Hints:
The complex is a heterodimer. Chain A has helices at residues 3-42, 47-74, 77-106, 116-137.
Amino acid sequence: MSRQQTSSNDWAATITKSTVRLGYWTAAWVATLAVATFGPTFIWQSRAASSIAILVNLAVGVGMILAHKRHLKSLDEMHQKIQLEAMGLSMGVGLIAGLAWSTADMANVIPFDAEIGALVILMALAYMAGIFAGYRRYR
Amino acid sequence: MKNRLKVLRAERDWTQADLADRLQVSRQTINAIEKGKFDPSLPLAFRAARLFGMAIEEIFQDEP
């Protein structure tokens, strides 16, 4: 096997490894978030236990961010650009819609509380739309 | 930006995937560069020039 071939296989293996690792960290973060959210209702009634669960969730969240950073660095430049544009769109939509959502709640324009969950869903949808548009643009 | 990647690749009987492997990018990136939809960075352009044994300007030309 040539040196070039070995190198390209290493590159592909690095992307696969970083993607799988990001998947594990994301799953762990969701699991710790679920434990921290539902623990006080179904498992414990202690404030200390809730604090520990939230700290564990934060620590795993930091791990997830670092795994995401490593994953982005492993991508080639066009895919990095697609990710950057999608994240920019998601952040912009989150900022604009989030503030409008909060203002609408404070001004009693909407008949319910502005839950952060709705904002997270909107940001996720904007991110997915950005990824879709990016892949379409460079197809 | 215009480029001769497709021609140079065809001369060597390489597929897009072959070239992608050699330049350590994805096949989709090679496809986008060949179609002029994505302009490569300077390091990637240098890698392509090194691979084909040519100067960068012999592969990539500015399109006014």
